[in-house]
Amino acid sequence: MDISVSTNAGVVDAFLANAKASPATSTRYLISNEGHIAFDDSGVNGPLVIAMPGMGDLRHQYRRLRPYFDQAGLRLVTMDPRGQGESSISWGDFSAKAAAQDVLRLMDELGADQAFIAGNSYTAGAAAWAAFLAPKRIKGIILLGPIMRDIPVSPWLRALIRIGFMGPWKIQFWLAYWNSLFPSKKPADHKQFRESLKASLSKTGRMDVLYKMINLSKAETENIIGKVNVPSLVVMGTKRRLSM
Q1: Which of 76, 134, 178, 236 to pair with 164, CA 20 to 30 A apart?
Q2: Residue partners of 218: CB distance under 8 A and separation at least 6
């Protein structure tokens, strides 16, 4: 894996805080027998970049980057992974590998032979899986705050997470964690985005799927890290906090 690493959190925070969100495009769906995957497409006539949000987030987390992709002549397609955002929850497998297979199917749907893939947190593993499964189709991967290995969790923290997902407070519990991922500057529309995320997580079954995803092992993803052979950019902020 040819890796380049960036850790300048201050520059990234300032960049995102000052960027203006571009209007969202119309939602489209990739349909299969198991369910549907929601995505939107900038429609720019240029190299394709498929971007996925982190666990328990929305594809619109890339809203403030879209104008820069447009200016660079890159076609940005953002997708909600299985069980998140506007994608369905009717899947039997929510692993990073399964998300990667959805990426490759989406490329087929878009008629794209090649693409760059961006993933945040656990979907960084999906980007790596896409490159592992179809190395000739993936031109490069962007791993944003990647979580690709099982993180040791103390018994008390595991119990706290279980309790957090048990009661009527579970959405607020997750939103408190999500909000902690923005320790310095926040986007101007941070509060509005938080309300959108809250509305999404309030839909029936969403939090159950999220809890299932949190408990999935990443051992299979860790095993392929050294076998991914495409250019890879890793972005890890200096103020990065522990992801579950």
Answers
A1: 236
A2: 96, 122, 125, 147, 148, 149, 150
Structure tokens at 115: 């693409």
- Own/partner contacts of 4-9, CB < 8 Å, gap of 24 or more, are 4/231, 4/232, 4/233, 4/234, 5/233, 5/234, 5/235, 5/236, 6/233, 6/234, 6/235, 6/236, 7/235, 7/236, 7/237, 7/238, 8/237, 8/238, 9/184, 9/237, 9/238, 9/239, 9/240
As a whole number of angstroms, the distance between CA 7 and CA 25 comes to 31
Q: Which of helix, strand or coil describes residue 42?
A: coil
Residue 96's domain comprises 2-235
CATH of the domain at 188: 3.40.50.1820
**pLDDT tens-place string over residues 97-138:** 999 999 999 999 999 999 999 999 999 999 999 999 999 999
Asked, for residue 152, whether it belongs to a domain, the answer is yes
Residue 153 maps to a domain: yes
- Measured between alpha carbons, how far is 191 from 68 in angstroms, rounded to an integer? 22
Please report, rounded to a whole number, the percentage of residues in the chain having pLDDT higher than 70: 87
Give how many domains the chain has, as a whole number.
Answer: 1
Average pLDDT of span 214-242:
88
Residue 137 contacts residue 113 (beta carbons within 8 Å): yes
Question: Which tens digits make up the pLDDT trace of 61-95?
Answer: 999 999 999 999 999 999 999 999 999 999 999 99
